[in-house]
Every structure is written in C-alpha cells, then in structure tokens.
Amino acid sequence: MTTTPSPSDDTSEVTVTQALAYAVQLQQANQLDAAELLYTRILEALPEQPDALHFLGVLQHQRGHSDTAIALIAQACTLIPNHPDCHINLGNVLADTGRLPEASTAYRRALELDPERSDVFNNLGVVFKMLGRWEEAEASYLRAIEISPDGTSAYNNLGLLHATRGRIKEAIHYYCLSIAKMPGHPDARRLLGIAYYTLGRTREAAEVFRQWREAEPDSPVARHMHAACSGEDVPERAADDYVEQTFDRFADSFDKQLQLNLAYRAPELVAEALARALPAGAAPLDILDAGCGTGLCGPLLRPLARRLSGADLSGGMLAKAEARQCYDLLLKEELTAFMAARPASFDAIISADTLVYFGALEAVCTAARQALRPQGLFVFTVEQLPPGTDQTGFRINPHGRYAHGRDYLESSLLAAGFSVRSIEAADLRNEGGEPVTGWVVTAAAP
What we know:
The chain is α/β, with parallel strands linked by helices. It is 54% helix and 15% strand. Helix 9 (153-164) packs antiparallel against helix 10 and helix 11 runs antiparallel to helix 12.
C-alpha cells in the first residue's frame, strides 16, 4: 500500500502533520492499534482530514475490514481527487476483495493523474488478467516494462499471463528476461522452473533450480525445489525455513491468489467434514487450526468453537490471521512440536492443505493423537497420488508439494491410534487450469 501524505499548502496544522507522520511510522511497523488510535483522534478533531481517512482505510484493510477500508479511502478520494496514491490504494483494496471492474476504474484514474506509473500499469495488468481480458493485460504489462525496463515484476507477470494462456515458450522468454534484468531475483528463477516442469521438461526445471542453488547455497526454496524436480536428497517433509520463507513472501497476496485465481476449496472442505462428524447438538469445541496460514478457516470454524487456536511457521501469515479476529490464540510454531507439547488439549484438530508439505505423516499423526482428548477429531486435506499407482506411500511432486496414497493415510492413522471415519476424494484447487485432486480425511481418537 502507498503511504505518502497528500500535498498541502496549509502550514497551520503542523501538529496534525506530525501526528500523521508518526501514525504512518506506527502503521509501517505493524503497530496497528496505536496507529488506529492516532488516526481516530485526528479525525475526531478534523473529521474530513483526507490523509487520516486514507491511511485509516489502508489500516482497516490490513485488519481484514475491507468494506470499511473502501468507504474511508473513497471518501479521501472525494476530498483530494487529484492525489493519485488515494486512487491506487482504492484500486488495491478493490482488487484484493474481488471487485475487479471497480479496481480497474480506480487504477485508470490514478494513471490519468500520473501517466508514468509503471507499478499502476502492472497492477492494472493483474486485474485484466483476472478478468480474462488477455490483450489488455498484455498491453498493460508491456507499458509497465516500457516505463521501467529494469523492473522484474511486470516481466514475471507477463510470463504468468502467457503461461495461463498455454503459451509456455513465451512465458519462458519473459522469465529469462527477468533473470537477466536482476540475476538474483528468486521469483523469476522459481517461475522459470515452474514453466519448464509445466511443459513436462522436469530435467530442465531441475537445472534451473540447481543453478539457483549454486548461486544462493543458503536458499531453502532453491534447495527444496531442486530436490522436488531432480529427485535428489528429497526430505521426508519440507524444511521449516522453506515453509517460513515461502509463505512470508506470499502472505500479502495469498488469499487473493488462492480464492480468485485457484478456486481454493480446502477450508470449506475441512469445516464441512468436521461439522458432519460432530453429533447433533454438540457443545462448542476447543479447536486447533494446525497450519492456520492467513486464517481462511477461522470464520468457518468460529461458530463451532469455544476456543479457537492457530499455529503456523509464517509470521506474515499469522499477522493476516490475527486481523480476522477469529482466533483466541495464535502462535508461531511448527505444528508437530506445537501439538506434541499440548497433550489432551483439543476436541478437534483441522489442517487445510498444510500436510501437503509433509511426506512422512507418522510423527504428525502421533502428535495429533496425543493432543486430542478422547473421541477428538482430526480432519485434514492432502493431495492424492494418481489412481492406479501404488497407494501405500507418498512422493514429492515437481511443484514441491507431496502427494499421498489412500492406503498410506489409513495405515499412518491406525498406527497412531486413530480410527478412520472417512477418506474422500475431492478437488482442492485449480492449478494450470486443471483441478488438483486430494483427500479429505476424518479420523477419531478412541
């Protein structure tokens, strides 16, 4: 979000200007309560102070209150109609909430005021891509590149656009240009590798990741993706630093990408499975959302919960989950260790698409069994090994996630002391235009 105060010729409000600057500092430091209090006090004294309205709107979006955010930023845009940053942030919030035609209008207004904003053309391209307006998206990305030829984001996005349209060779071209512009930029290498394995050229994908690993030997993402594509040194589960770095990077765009672009269904699937498994008239539960991410499961689980806890390795994701104000407890901790340290603490444990980063499930199933009270429920999703393949094990796929066989899931749960209620096939999301089929698993403690 852009946080630049609007121009003002009024020098009589020095204390307000100072208060705004301090509130912005607090907001950028993620001290949202203090920043909100300061913005509110400014607006109590000056109800139409446009910067306070604007930045409070940005803050409300950070907290997950996007309707309030849109109203506040729109009011600021009315008061200072020629300040492009207001229109940019209005477009950002509208895009994040799926109001794409309105977002494009806001971005176009910003470009009328400041026609040389490469970042806004890039954002507009993203909106057009989500609307399926391919030619306009391509034109927007190309204009962003024309204005800022040394940037990388528009090159990556243009590559993604071509990949979405099945033009994988063109996608590879733009990913390579991005790497050439900024050799150390990880997104371009990651996307180039993805493009190659999407074409079925897994060896070339592995070589991209090998070169990345050679250039950045400490990169957990390069290490994990090289293992996934090469089959060398494959870990039994994704390392903590890989999970933390991957999801911290995508925390801001995670919900939009999953829900708008990938038709993500795992939260609804686990919440529905839990509700079906509960007896009629069940009392509110102590529930753990294991690998809670941005808290997409939170609003679905809150009606069933007496106390709702969440654990995740990504601090960026947890900040988004906290903004939903659904959870009683959120902790940054590896979920197996979290559960093992809390025996008989929960009536239900759910995990939506987190165990796809685990290959071997024995340890996590045992920890879940220990953390559950008698008759407690363990509900989770994983990706499915293709029908007709050996279902007694698991494997890592080139995209870096693990797939599991039905027989392996059952044996792991039984060995941990669970009874298996159901293992049902379901489409968890879309990827590359195709559904990703997984398992929705429900198990019960004795």
